[in-house]
Specification:
The complex is a heterodimer. Helix content of chain A is 85%, strand content 0%. Chain A is an all-alpha fold. Chain A has two domains: 1-129; 131-274, no CATH class. Chain B has one domain: P-loop containing nucleotide triphosphate hydrolases (Rossmann fold), CATH 3.40.50.300. Chain B is 35% helix and 27% strand. Chain B has nine helices and ten strands. In chain B, strand 1 and strand 2 (18-29) form a beta hairpin. The longest helix of chain B has 14 residues, at 161-174. Chain B is globular and about 50 Å long. The mean pLDDT of chain B is 90. Classes of the chains: A mainly alpha, B alpha/beta. The A-B interface holds A 1, 4, 7-8, 11-12, 76, 81-85, 87-92, 268-273 and B 49, 52-56, 71-72, 74-75, 77, 79, 81, 83-87, 89-90, 94, 98, 101-103.
Chain lengths: 274, 233
């Protein structure tokens, strides 16, 4: 059933996301080409300016589209009229939540990838980057990674934390919207208030917890002062980061469980469609 | 007692301090068409939502096919809410696909037959359809399941009398003898002839549950006349 839910969620959103991705890529190609046009010509300059403006707008649109779609679809499917169908499907609530979460995770990541590719295309047009250089840059990066393998660990940590963070943010939106139901006729306002409230309370807790590794930082900073080579410095830096990474990961995982629990509870025990 | 399809015991639902249903006991058997009748705000919709798991009871319990409300009951209950609950961007073809994916008891041939008889364009999006046509699409999808219990909340309110006849006919002829249908409506005279049994609900309490034949025999009047008497303002 989970697979079917995901399939239908993608079906319902593929058209608009596909269009946006296509538009961003096409615009980056057009803008990239237009930058090669000779300078000083008024007509060409106007074209360039318009293309860049449209490109920036569509790019922003694409970056927010996943989140906006997620909000609209969750609200309509789970809490408005379509909820009468959603909640009477023979499907478990956790499957609904997970299906929506995974679908929008994929769209958000896809949007980041498309944005990176299109920026690459755009930069090639500006002449800052060209193909012949890419290989060179890559091999340089490879060489420095070989020299300082700790950087790979740090990059992996950042990747993992980024992924976990996306899930936590998606579920926070779900939790806020499902809490909005408790506000009777003011559900949208209730959802916004829940979102702000949740983030405020959790912000206080997390900043308190994040303070914990700070104590151990002092010694590390002294060691950093005495370090004489880059390898040592990276090692010390990594020790400091590790504490920070582990705590962040634990906090995010707890938040994911909390948001999931709130959403599940609100949609099963407190469901009250208009 | 294997003929029992639905059993509600001491069912109570409060919204804050307001009691929408209080201590209702209802037992429904297989193979019946039951009219759930009562004025607006009497608790009909609350009862229906509880049967579909769209609300949780404050106290008491409901069982359908011997199971508490959940996945197993949702598999065998086909529910038509009183509002349009389909995605406006979808076409009947896409909706058919959706229903077939999620309901094992969905009968595609039956649905296609009904879409054809009611001349519904399978490629038109819901948002471009008239309100009546949308209601027809919903009713077709709901009645195309081979369910054990159909719960229809105001199924004939928005459609024209000709379609109304077709729909009622569909309801009577399409369900199998083991299944039951609950119809909630206040257009009593229109459906009076198809009902086997009626339940009157008033202010969250059951005031009457009786077979239509027994009412005609005992009271000597139509359901419509009895309804007007019981619910006189």
């Amino acid at each position: 059933m989970l697979k079917k839910l995901i399939k239908h969620e993608f079906k319902a959103t593929a058209k608009i996301m596909g269009l946006l991705f296509g538009a961003v890529l096409l615009l980056s190609v057009l803008t990239s080409i237009s930058l090669k046009l000779p300078e000083g010509n008024k007509f060409f300059d106007t074209i360039k300016a318009v293309l860049i403006a449209v490109y920036v707008v569509v790019m922003f649109g694409m970056m927010f589209a996943g989140i906006l779609l997620l909000i609209f679809r969750f609200y309509n499917n789970m809490l408005k009229d379509q909820g009468y169908l959603t909640h009477t499907l023979p499907v478990k609530m956790w499957q609904h939540i997970v299906a929506k979460m995974l679908t929008y995770f994929v769209w958000i990541v896809a949007a980041v990838v498309v944005a990176a590719v299109s920026l690459g295309i755009f930069l090639m047009g500006t002449g800052v980057v060209n193909f012949s250089q890419i290989g060179e840059v890559m091999s340089e990066i490879g060489a420095s990674l070989e020299q300082y393998p700790q950087i790979i660990t740090i990059l992996l940590w950042i990747l993992v934390l980024g992924i976990v963070q996306i899930f936590a943010n998606i579920l926070c939106l779900f939790a806020s919207m499902s809490m909005g139901q408790l506000f009777g006729k003011h559900r949208v306002a209730g959802s916004v208030a829940s979102y702000i409230g949740l983030n405020y309370i959790i912000g206080i807790f997390t900043s308190f917890i994040m303070y914990l590794p700070m104590n151990s930082f002092e010694g590390q900073i002294n060691a950093l002062d005495e370090a004489t080579n880059i390898a040592d410095m990276i090692q010390i830096f990594q020790n400091m980061l590790n504490g920070f990474f582990v705590i962040t990961l634990v906090v995010e995982l707890v938040l994911i469980a909390l948001y999931f629990g709130i959403t599940h509870f609100m949609l099963t025990r407190k469901l009250n469609l208009e | 007692m294997n003929d029992i399809l639905l059993e509600a015991e001491y069912l109570t639902k409060c919204y804050g301090k307001k009691k929408a249903l209080s201590n209702i006991n209802i037992t429904l058997e297989k193979g019946k068409i039951i009219g759930l009748l009562g004025p607006n705000g009497s608790g009909k919709s609350t009862f229906i939502k509880l049967c579909n798991g769209l609300l949780q009871p404050t106290s008491g319990s409901i069982k359908i096919v011997g199971q508490p409300i959940g996945i197993e009951t949702k598999k065998v209950v086909s529910y038509l809410p009183e509002r349009t609950y389909l995605d406006d961007n979808m076409t009947p073809t896409q909706l058919l696909d959706y229903f077939m994916d999620f309901y094992e008891d969905f009968d595609k041939e039956r649905a296609l037959g009904m879409f054809k008889s009611l001349n519904i364009d399978m490629k038109q999006r819901m948002k471009n359809m008239s309100k009546g046509t949308k209601e027809k699409v919903q009713l077709i999808l709901v009645m195309s399941r081979r369910a054990k219990l159909y719960i229809l909340d105001e199924p004939i309110g928005g459609v024209d009398p000709a379609a109304r006849d077709y729909i009622l006919n569909t309801i009577i002829t399409n369900y199998d003898p083991e299944a039951s249908v609950i119809i909630s409506t206040h257009l009593i005279s229109d459906i009076e002839n198809v009902l086997d049994e009626v339940i009157f609900i008033k202010n969250g309490e059951k005031v009457l549950q009786k077979s239509v034949d027994a009412i005609r025999e005992d009271e000597g009047k139509s359901i419509d006349a009895l309804f007007r008497e019981v619910f006189r303002c």
